[in-house]
Design goal:
Elements lengths: L5 H21 L34 H7 L5 E6 L6 E7 L2 E10 L2 E3 L8 H11 L13 E2 L12 E9 L4 E7 L5 E6 L6 H14 L10 E5 L6 E5 L6 H8 L5 H20 L2 E2 L8 E3 L5 E3 L6 E2 L4 E3 L14 H6 L1 E3 H16 L11 H9 L12 H10 L10 H14 L2
Parallel strand pairs: 1-5
Antiparallel strand pairs: 1-2, 2-3, 3-4, 6-7, 7-8, 8-10, 9-10, 11-14, 12-13, 15-16
Length: 416
């Protein structure tokens, strides 16, 4: 027989559950964790120009069209010529560029002046006022800066560790987590077209991730000088390493390092990337003697794997370059294979200069006549045979990097 008090107990139980639920909903219970007091939030429009998502810094004008995809897309950048800021907008399928005028510490395009560029941009976005009456262009969507962009303040520079074609190279650290980095700087006095070439290396490396390819960390383009920030490879360049440490290395260790280079180049070959400047000086050595391909300043990406150069003979490393590239400006993975053969020779000669007794012109003539480098003293016959196949005059007769990688792996396994 049921107890007559049961409905009352159910009512009390339901009330208790409801009270508990109310407490959770209304937050009556005591907080478990204490928090620091909230900090004042700064509206985006009051943040400095370099912190605006649409400010891209000193990017080349040639890159702008790739970033603007829809009518009304816009960004602000620093002119690579004069010290001016430029508003770039896509309109009717074409990028249009407007210099932001600076007058008495105020900024304007055609209408009112504003104390900061962010306030000017906010006004144009909110009012939907045309940038100029003549153009009728209206801002629609801000294009955010690339995820690779760092602020200059994010990088702490150390000592100078080298000099490149465009400027000096420094050691450094990322301020956020103390990651060691190498920082390539671009001279401020270079013309805009050379600054664009400087950034070409970063554009190539953004897409690649491989243990035998030096890793890009970011670029600093928000102001001058422009930086490319890369992983710091502590052992330095392969050529210097060969000349200092080479006499202490066994053949198997040299084969292993060139095998690393072949693995990196096989990866680039699969991505249709032509390096164009493969040499011992452009490879880096880690503390564990692992080799990484570096210096992509001359590299190109081509869908058909072939790049035709029309820039003349300036800065071409003649003694490392394939005949078809020298004669016709025709670069491909096959021309990189020729250069890899020279790199192999450098490795087993412990950093000797190829064709040391010949000038560049004499080297070209000798190669055309069928002359090839002699085998280094300590070079295994099977490695020299691979070099000779890399130096076949007909590009199609040269081995692929996949084949080279496989063969060097097999050679390493046969050596103690």
């Amino acid at each position: 027989m049921l107890s007559p008090s049961l409905p009352q107990e159910q009512e009390r139980s339901g009330a208790s559950a409801l009270e508990t639920l109310k407490n959770h909903i209304t937050g009556i219970f005591s907080p478990k964790y204490s928090l620091p007091p909230p900090v004042p939030l700064i509206p985006d429009v009051q943040k400095p120009l370099c912190q605006q998502v649409w400010y891209h810094g000193a990017i080349p004008r040639s890159e702008v069209q790739e970033l603007l995809t829809c009518s009304g897309d816009f960004l602000v950048r620093e002119s690579q010529g004069k010290q001016e800021y430029v508003l770039s907008v896509l309109w009717d399928g074409q990028p249009r560029h407007f210099i932001i005028q600076a007058v008495n510490d105020m900024f304007r395009l055609e209408g009112d002046c504003f104390p900061t560029i962010p306030l000017l941009i906010q006004h144009l976005l909110q009012s939907q006022q045309p940038i100029t009456r003549k153009s009728g262009i209206v801002l629609a969507r801000a294009v955010p800066k690339d995820k690779w962009v760092l602020n200059h303040e994010d990088v702490l520079l150390g000592e100078r560790i080298g000099r490149g074609n465009f400027g000096e190279v420094f050691s450094g650290r990322l301020r956020a987590d103390n990651t060691p980095v190498a920082v390539k700087s671009c001279r401020e006095t270079l013309p805009p077209e050379l600054k664009a070439k400087f950034l070409q290396e970063a554009r190539i490396l953004k897409q690649y991730r491989h243990p035998n390819i030096v890793r890009l960390i970011g670029v600093c383009t928000q102001k001058q000088p422009i930086y490319i920030v890369m992983e710091l490879v502590q052992g330095g360049d392969f050529l210097t390493f060969l000349r200092s440490e080479g006499p202490h290395l066994r053949v198997k260790e040299l084969v292993k390092m060139t095998e690393n280079a072949a693995a990196g180049m096989e990866y680039l070959e699969s991505k249709h990337c032509i390096h164009r400047d493969l040499a011992a000086r452009n490879c880096l050595v880690t503390e564990r003697n692992t080799l990484k391909i570096s210096d992509f300043g001359m590299s190109r990406e081509e869908e058909d794997g072939i790049y035709a150069s029309t820039g003349g003979m300036k800065q071409i490393p003649v003694k490392w370059t394939a005949p078809e590239a020298l004669n016709y400006g025709r670069y491909s993975s096959e021309s990189d294979v020729w250069s890899f053969g020279i790199l192999l020779w450098e490795a087993f000669s412990l950093g000797a200069v190829p064709y040391a007794n010949l000038s560049n012109q004499q080297t070209r003539e000798a190669v055309e006549q069928g002359v090839r480098l002699e085998p280094p003293e300590q070079c295994p016959e099977e490695v020299y045979q691979l070099m000779q196949r890399c130096w076949e005059y007909e590009p199609r007769k040269r081995p692929s990097f996949s084949t080279i990688h496989q063969e060097l792996t097999a050679i390493r396994k046969r050596h103690r």
